[in-house]
Amino acid sequence: QVVFALNQTLLQQESLRAGSFQIPYTTEDLIKHYNCGDLSSIIFNHDTSQVPNFINASLPAHERITAQEIDSYFRQELIYKRNERMGRRVKALLEEHPDKSFFFAFGAGHFMGNNTVIDVLRREGYEVEHTPAGQAI
């Protein structure tokens, strides 16, 4: 699986350099949607937007299965579990110091897709509000 993932990543990078493959959104798109609090946009709804996408229809069936297994592993290990850990850390701090105020700042990756840090905290009963860019807190 590691060799497959490496080969697919290299093929994608070669396609990007050759101009035959384009990322569906730019860094500017990410910044705009993040600043606007548009976390439900199509950009932020891809669980795998933070990791390489190995699944494509041109792969033979056995390679497509390998790609799906790797995608599932990345999603679970690199995204969902990380957000669970971050959410638990926030919750622990809030419960350990109920008399204090906190300001938590996260990178955009913690708000992408499903099972975000916000989702974790809301499942725990916390109310999370978005503060738009430029608005005083």
From TrEMBL:
Protein name as it appears in the record: Metalloprotease TIKI
Names of the cofactor(s): Co(2+); Mn(2+)
Tree of life domain: Eukaryota
Family: Belongs to the TIKI family.
Topological relation to the membrane, as annotated: Single-pass type I membrane protein
EC number(s) reported in the record: 3.4.-.-
One family name in Pfam for this protein: TraB_PrgY_gumN
Top EC group: hydrolase
GO CC term, one of those recorded: plasma membrane
UniProt KW keywords: Cell membrane, Glycoprotein, Hydrolase, Membrane, Metal-binding, Metalloprotease, Protease, Signal, Transmembrane, Transmembrane helix, Wnt signaling pathway
Single Gene Ontology BP annotation: Wnt signaling pathway
Species for this entry: Cinclus mexicanus (American dipper)
A GO term, aspect molecular function: metal ion binding
Function: Metalloprotease that acts as a negative regulator of the Wnt signaling pathway by mediating the cleavage of the N-terminal residues of a subset of Wnt proteins. Following cleavage, Wnt proteins become oxidized and form large disulfide-bond oligomers, leading to their inactivation.
Alphabetized InterPro entries for the sequence: TIKI1/2-like (IPR040230), TraB/PrgY/GumN_fam (IPR002816)
